[in-house]
Structures are given as C-alpha cells and as structure tokens.
Amino acid sequence: MTATNSKPVLDGPDTTVEIRETFGIDAEGEVPAFSEPSEHVPRIDAGYRFHPATTMAILAGFAEDRRVLVQGRHGTGKSSHIEQVAARLNWPCIRINLDSHISRIDLIGKDAIVLRDGKQVTEYREGLLPWCYQRPVALVLDEYDAGRPDVMFVVQRVLEAEGRLTILDQNKVLMPHPFFRLFATANTVGLGDMSGLYHGTQQLNQAQLDRWNIISRLDYLHEDEEAEVVLSKAPWMGEGQNVEILLQMVRMASQTRIGFAAGDVSTVMSPRTVISWAQNYRIFRNLEYAFEVAFLNRCDEAEWPILAEYYQRCFGRNLEEARTPLWQRVSVEAGENET
Ligand SMILES: Nc1ncnc2c1ncn2[C@@H]1O[C@H](COP(=O)(O)OP(=O)(O)OP(=O)(O)O)[C@@H](O)[C@H]1O
Ligand SMILES: [Mg+2]
C-alpha cells in the first residue's frame, strides 16, 4: 500500500478569536479561527444564543482536536450549535445526515466509468469522508445514532485522533489534515431509545462510543432563554401584547415536556415547534389555529384533552372553543362580498 497525503485545498486557521467576545460566555481564552470565510463556512445567525457548556465542548473540539458528540432531544439546537460555532470561526463545516439512506459507498467513494479522450476508463470518485478528511473541514455526523452498521464501521476508523483512513478498494491510506475536525449529534446516548420518540435509532457499539473524547448533553433551555431564541427567529413576538403571548407559548412547550416525562403525553414540543407556531401565528393571525397546525395535528387524538388542559392552564382559554370555525365562506358577486 502507498501512503498518500493529498495536498490540502485550504490552509489552516490564521488568526484567533476571544471566547468572551465572540460567544458571549464568561470564559477566558482564544480559539483558532480563519480570518476569511470560504465556500463551506455556514452563514452567521446573529441572534444565536450559545449554551455555555455545549459551546465550550464544541470549542475544545475545534481548538484541541477533540472528537465531540452532542446529545440531546430534538430541536434543542445540537446541529445549529456546531454550525454557528463554525460560522464564527470561519471554519468550513459539512453536515452529513447518517439516516438510513446513506451507505458506506456514499461515504468512502466508488469507481465510476468516465469518458476520457473518447475512451471509457474507470476512475475513483472520492466519497465525502476522504474529501473532508484531507481538508481543514469540520465534519458533522448528524443523527449519529441512526447510522447503519456498515456506515458506523467506516466512521470508527476516522474516530481515532491519529487515525488513518484506509481506502481498501483503492490501496490508499489517507492521513488526516491537521485541521480536520469531527463532530456528531444524536438524540439518544447510544443505549437505544426507551421513549419511542426516536424511531430508527440504534444502540451504539460501546467501543465506538468510547472513541468520542467529549460527550456533551444539551437539554431544553429555561423558559425565558427559550423565549429569546424564539424571539430571534420571530421578532414580531416582541411587539406589544405578543410578548406575553410568547411567554405563554413557551410555557405551553414546557408543559408538554413535563407531561412527557410523567408519561401523560407522548409528543413533546421542541423549540423548533414553538418557532413554527410563532411563524404560523403571523400568517394566520389566530393563535389556536397556528397551534393546531404547528403541533396539535401531529399528536395522538386521544391526548388532545390533556393538551387542551395544558393550553387552558397557560392561556386561560378553552382550546376547543377557540378552535371553532375561524373562517367563513363568502360568495363574491360583482365585487361585493356577502357572508
Ligand atoms: N440557542 C439557540 N439560539 C438560537 N436558535 C436556536 C438555538 N437552539 C436552537 N435554535 C433554533 O432551533 C431550531 C432547531 O435547532 P437544531 O436543528 O440545531 O436542533 P437539533 O437539536 O439539531 O434537532 P434534531 O435533533 O431534530 O436534529 C433551529 O431553527 C435553530 O436555529
Ligand atoms: Mg440536528
């Protein structure tokens, strides 16, 4: 076998940023960064709120080449946290969703038949993994606990910090770029899913889990913090009466999480759902209809009475009554509206 170390396309970090200033976290220190953004650098979300412990874990991943796995329930901000840290460091970042559709071949690459000088030749097409591995790129394996076993074995090889990636089909051994970084996000901690919320997740091989240097848990935010996150995505919720409505919406979300923990409801509202609710509210101008289409229609009908009770508690209104037909049909004749 030949050891190859392809020339990186991009250089490494050429500057540093202050943790305190850049991420709004009370911590001393600097982390390496790129002075200019490039093609794969995610766009900055200016209103993003960095969770201190998770951000510090992710920063250790970038600065100290640690393999970081971020675990947490859906919509807690796992993927976006890594992306937003990368955005502030101008670090190219590529996300791969390891759901059941991705195969070993997609990751590693394959031989393809191409035409060269009028002749058919077989040529190796590099997969995403070797491509990232040889560049200063942060690779994020999303839905890590949903990866197929054949895919997980490929991933295992790159998890070793000093690891080399052997492309057997090509007789090649690749060395990692010194600024290649690896992250993953998962809904479970690899022990399988007891809640029934995360269909398609697998138990993770313990030897594989062992290879992550840092495992960070991200939970739902406190109500006031969550309200600020929603506000950053739905600024109209900060106007007039909407402020109070927003706090009630966030309380409703947290009720579903408490109810879920107690086994009373089987669907929880994520911050993403609250954001959709706020967006739907702007579109339909009716809070209950917006709630119905953002969340209620996704829930088991048998649980609607419980959810209505939570709603009553948060808003002091009967959800059922408020949901009674909103819009009436009108007949439009010669420019006149009749109801
Ligand atoms: N701290 C935050 N500040 C601002 N927006 C946030 C924050 N956390 C989450 N969001 C927003 O909430 C939404 C969901 O976040 P994200 O996709 O990162 O969640 P996730 O944990 O990866 O979810 P899943 O488990 O479903 O993959 C996104 O629109 C994201 O921008
Ligand atoms: Mg995600």
Describe the protein's architecture and organization:
The chain is α/β, with parallel strands linked by helices. It folds into two domains: 2-217, P-loop containing nucleotide triphosphate hydrolases (Rossmann fold); 223-322. The chain is built from 13 helices and 14 strands. It has a five-stranded parallel beta sheet. A three-stranded mixed beta sheet has the order 1-10-9, with no helix packed on it. A hairpin with a 4-residue loop joins strand 9 and strand 10. Helix 2 packs across helix 3 (78-89), helix 8 (223-233) crosses helix 10 and helix 9 (242-261) runs antiparallel to helix 10. It is globular and about 70 Å long. Residues 1-9 have low confidence and may be disordered. Bound molecules: adenosine-5'-triphosphate and magnesium ion (MG). The site of adenosine-5'-triphosphate has 17 residues, from helix 3, helix 8 and helix 10.
Give the helix level as a range of percent: 25-40%
Overall morphology:
globular
Q: How many helices does DSSP assign? A: 13
Strand content: 15-25%
**If strands are numbered along the chain, what order do they take across the biggest sheet?**
5-8-11-4-12
C-alpha termini separation: 80 Å
> CATH fold name of the largest domain, please?
Rossmann fold
